[in-house]
Design brief:
Layout (H helix, E strand, L loop, with lengths): L1 E6 L3 H10 L6 E4 L16 E2 L10 H20 L3 E2 L3 E5 L5 H14 L5 E4 H7 L9 E5 L3 E3 L1 H14 L3 E3 L4 E7 L2 E6 L2 E10 L5 H8 L6 E11 L10 E4 L9 E4 L5 E4 L3 E3 L9 H14 L8 E12 L5 E4 L6 E5 L5 H20 L22 H10 L6 E3 L4 E2 H9 L7 H8 L12 H12 L20 H4 L1
Parallel strand pairs: 1-2, 1-12, 2-9, 5-14, 12-20
Antiparallel strand pairs: 3-8, 4-8, 5-7, 6-7, 10-11, 11-12, 13-16, 13-17, 13-18, 15-16, 19-20, 21-22
Length: 478
């Protein structure tokens, strides 16, 4: 019997796990994938929204602003990349100024600090590559960029160190009420718990509807992106938005914390909750719409394209509460943009709800800090040489594009909730995220995984499951 079982090891589920670890509770996170950060949390815009566009009085607005304020200190505590670079919402027509003003007033009402409208001359000084049609923009200095993998993994690792159990490759098939709480029927056995936290992303409606007659619908909203090489990373210095519409914030152009440029997303509602394929039509839309606010976007420097899914609830609102008709079942559903920004605040809110149900004692041994992977490329020459003397693996470059060493990959595999696949290594170290997109480093990373996990090379996967890169017998390969 667990005290709390959390469905989903994305950024929301991991934030809930970390905050609940502050209490003396027996907590378990169940995740159908082979690792944390395998759903919505791994494919998004990688930005911290300021909070100016969410509806006044909404939970989304409240948690967006709260999460944004928490992010800087959290990045120091958990050692992940975050930069408060600011954002601009660009107005390209004089007749749209009233919409820009409305956005300013909405942001002020939401509690966003430092908002102001900048005119064309100042805008050009801030961003020389802004569109020739731009007449003004809303400037939000509290906007930021971060590493979504870094945040998600840091939250999960810190939860794990504080005693939270994680069960991967475990899909929840059904939820049943019991005398003591709930039973989760999975493809890896049955588990009982006093409280369930439903943080299942695009599938949160499925579990909500198992226990409630007040049905919820979550639509998978696909967004296509381009990621550009680091040679294009300084084309803009802030996150550039267009004025929002009913499909969200439109196509943005933004630097990333790692020095790339990201362009996207589209917003296309689809029936397939696994539909992360990109399409030619949507990528063409990214090309056209990115040029509205930023000129000469160097799309010839694209190194990859990808698509992510947002868990769009039809009312466009976060649903975070204990269901009155299902005591002990807590929804953490409809977490779409700005869910990444809001995640620290979401974790706090869910922990408050659960602690109100279970009345647990505080955990006096809770450790709130965590150190990330050592990065030789960020050290001085003297520091790097000293590190290599102690650990020679840090002198062996595996990924040339990102200058990732064998020592970093070993750390990624050996640390709490360590990497078990190529994608797991990639999300923790960036090995394979560079210009060649893993063309050079994959075989060498596979050798390290094979050695460290004590498995044959043929069992090494790209992302768990059946995603093996080597197939057939030795005889077949010969």
């Amino acid at each position: 019997m667990y005290d709390v079982m959390i469905i989903g090891a994305g950024v929301s589920g991991s934030a809930c796990a970390r905050e609940l670890a502050r209490y003396k509770l027996n907590i378990c996170v169940v995740e159908r994938a082979e690792d944390v950060c395998c759903g919505t949390s791994k494919a998004n815009s990688a930005i911290a929204h300021a909070g100016f566009d969410a509806d006044q009085g909404s939970l989304m607005a409240k948690l967006n602003v709260q999460g944004n304020k928490m992010m800087e200190e959290l990045s120091k505590e958990l050692d992940f990349e975050f930069i408060r670079n600011g954002s601009l919402v660009v107005c390209t027509r004089e007749e749209d100024r009233r919409n820009l003003q409305a956005l300013l007033e909405n942001g002020i009402a939401n509690g966003v600090e430092g908002l102001r409208i900048v005119e064309r001359e100042e805008l050009l000084a801030m961003e020389p590559n802004i569109s020739d049609e731009a007449v003004a923009a809303l400037y939000a200095p509290t906007g930021g960029i971060l590493c979504p993998f870094g945040l998600n993994i840091a939250l999960a690792e810190n939860a794990c160190v504080n005693g939270v159990e994680f069960k991967f490759d475990t899909e929840v098939l059904n939820i049943e009420k019991t005398d003591g709480g709930w039973k989760l029927v999975t493809d890896n056995g049955d588990y009982e718990t006093k409280v369930v936290v439903n943080a299942a992303g695009v599938y949160a409606d499925k579990f909500h509807n198992m226990v409630s007659n007040d049905k919820m619908t979550i639509v998978a909203r696909r967004g296509d992106y381009y990621l550009l090489d680091k040679t294009a990373g300084k084309h803009v210095s802030r996150t550039i938005f267009t004025l929002p519409n009913e499909f969200g914030k439109g196509v943005l152009v933004s630097p990333t914390v790692h020095g790339n440029l990201i362009v996207g997303p589209t917003a296309n509602d689809i029936d397939d909750k696994e539909g992360t394929n990109t399409t030619r039509a949507e990528l063409d839309e990214v090309t056209v719409k990115s040029a509205v606010n930023v000129k000469n976007v160097p799309l010839r420097q694209v190194i990859t394209s990808f698509a992510g899914l947002r868990a769009h609830e039809l009312g466009h609102e976060f649903h975070i509460r204990e269901l009155p008709e299902a005591p002990g079942f807590v929804d953490c559903a409809g977490i779409e943009s700005p869910g990444l920004t809001s995640s620290p605040a979401i974790g706090c809110m869910v922990a408050d709800i659960v602690s109100g149900i279970l009345k647990p004692e505080k955990n006096p041994d809770f450790v709130g800090s965590r150190k990330g992977i050592v990065r030789p490329s960020e050290m001085s020459l003297e520091e790097r040489n000293e590190l290599i003397k102690k650990e020679p693996a840090y002198g062996n470059i595996i990924c040339r594009c990102e200058m990732i060493t064998e020592g970093e990959i070993l750390d990624a595999i050996r640390r709490p909730l360590g990497a078990k696949s190529l994608d797991g290594v990639k999300r923790r170290t960036r090995a394979g995220m560079g210009r060649c997109q893993a063309g050079f480093c994959s075989p060498r990373t596979m050798e390290i995984l094979s050695r460290e996990l004590h498995i044959d090379m043929s069992q090494v996967t790209k992302s768990g499951g059946e995603s093996r890169l080597i197939v057939g017998t030795n005889k077949d390969r010969i």
